[in-house]
Amino acid sequence: MTQTVGIVGLGIMGGPMAANLLGAGHTVIGYDSQPAALERLGAVGGKAADSVAALTTAADVVITMLPDSPHVEEVVLGPGGVLENAEPGLLLIDMSTIRPDSSVKVAQEAAARGVRVLDAPVSGGEAGAKEGSLSIMVGGEAEDVEAARPYLDVVGGTVVHVGPASAGQTVKAANQLIVAGNIQLLAEALVFLEAHGVDTESATAVLGGGLAGSAVLNRKAAGMRAREFAPGFRIDLHHKDLGIVTAAAREAAGEPDEREPDRPADLLAGVDQRRGHAGVGARNAARRRVHRRREDQAQAEAHHEQAGEHLEGVAGIDADAGEHDHRDGAQQHARRDQRARAEAREQAGLADRAGGHDQSDHRQEGHARDERREAEGLLHVVGEEQEDPEDPGADDGRDSRRRPRAQSPCWRANTTTRIRFSVLTSTAITR
Fold it and tell me: What residue numbers bound the domain in which 215 lies?
C-alpha cells in the first residue's frame, strides 16, 4: 500500500532517501530550506511543500533528516512545526542523528498529542543512502516499528529495533565513535605505508581480508589513496556526533553536561545547513570549541591546584616521618651505648678478678692489665662517639651520632621520588 511520505531535510542523505521512496511507488512531499534541494526532488517526481505545516497536514508519515538536536526540536516542537499540525495517529520517524535526551523529549511531547514517534538514525553515508542499503537502528514501540517497516526497508538494508525511545540514538552514538576511530586510523595507516614505500593498493587489499577489514576501509581507502576528498559528510556534523557521545557518557555517569546549549537558527527562513555559509552549524561549532577550551583550561588549573595541595601534604607527611625516624634512631643508639658500657664494665671486672687470683703470675697480671686498658679504652671511645663536632644537631642536647634521615642525601632523593610519584598519581587519577 502506497502512502504519502513527507520528508523534512533533503540534503546529502535525505535527497537520495526521497528518491528511493519515490522509486518504491510512494508519494513524496519534501521541504528544505534550500530551493536547489526542492528542485532536485521535483526532477525525480517529488512534490515541494512551502512549509513544515503544509507538509505535515498532507502526509501520512513524516520523516525528518536534520543536522542536530536543536533543528529537530524546532521543526517538531516549535511554532508551525509537526506536532502543532499533526493529526492523532501520525507516524513521525526522526532519522537525524541527535542527542538521546532530545529524542526522549520529542517522544514524550508527541505521545501527549497522540503522535507515534520513532528515533531511527542511519549509518552508511551518502553511498548507502543512494543504494538504499543504510543500517538503521530504531528506538520506540515495537508496533510502531512494524508500521514503519514499509518505508525503512526501502531506504535501508539492515533495520533493527534496538529498544525504547532514544535507544536508536544511543546505538548511533556508539556507531559514530567506532567510525571516527576507523577513519582516523585508516588515514594514519596509509601515511605510514607510503612513508615506507609500500604499494598502498595491495596493502589495503590484504588488510581488508583480515581483522583490519571494515566498511570504512572498503569505502574510503581508494579515495584516500588518490587524495580525492569529495564531500560526503560535513566535518562539523561529525564533530557534533562525537559531542553527542561525550554528552551521553556524562549523563550515564551522572555528571552534568555543562556545555553551552546549541540554539537553532531560523531553519524555516532558508539558513544553509549543509554548506556552512555562516549558518547555525558554523556558529554552534564555534561556540562549542570556545566552551571546550574554557572547560579544558579550568580543568587544567584545577589539576595544578590539586597537585600542589597534594605535594604539600606529602612533603608534610614525609617531614613528620623523618622526625619520627630520627627520634627512634636516637633511642635505639642510646640502648646500644648502654649495652656497650655494660659489656665493658663486665670485662673490666673479669680482668680485676683474674689479677687477684694469681698475683705471682706476671704474665697473667700483664694480660689482665692489657684487658683492663682495652676495656677502659672501649669506654673512652664510646664516650667520645656521643659528641660529634661535625654533627649540626650535637648542640641541641639530642643524640646525633647518626645523621638524621632528613639530612641524608639518599633519603632526600627518595623523598623527592615519592613526592613526584604521588603527585603524578594524583593528577592521573583526577584526569
Answer: 174-301
User: CA 328: distance to chain centroid?
Assistant: 48
Q: In this structure, are 25 and 140 located in the same domain?
A: yes
Domain end position, chosen among 164, 182, 216: 164
Asked if residues 46 and 57 have their Cβ atoms less than 8 Å apart, the reply is: no
H helices of 93-166, in order, are: 100-112, 125-131, 142-155
324 & 380 share domain: yes
Residues 6+ apart with CB under 8 A from 248: 99, 100, 170, 173
Q: What is the DSSP string of 214-239?
A: -HHHHHHHHHHHTT----SS-HHHHH
Domain termination site, one of 301, 318, 353: 301
Q: What is the rounded CA–CA span in Å between residue 390 and residue 24? A: 99
- Mapped onto helix, strand or coil, the DSSP state of residue 64 is strand
Q: pLDDT under 70 in the chain at which residues?
A: 1, 257-291, 303-305, 307-334, 337, 344-431
**Active-site residue identified among 47, 105, 130, 172:** 172
For 380, the grid coordinates are: 673512652
Under the phi-then-psi rule, with left for phi > 0, alpha for psi from -120 to 50, and beta for the rest, what region is 257? beta
Residue 35 shares a structural domain with residue 158: yes
**Does residue 172 carry a catalytic annotation?**
yes
Distance CA 399, CA 67 (A): 78
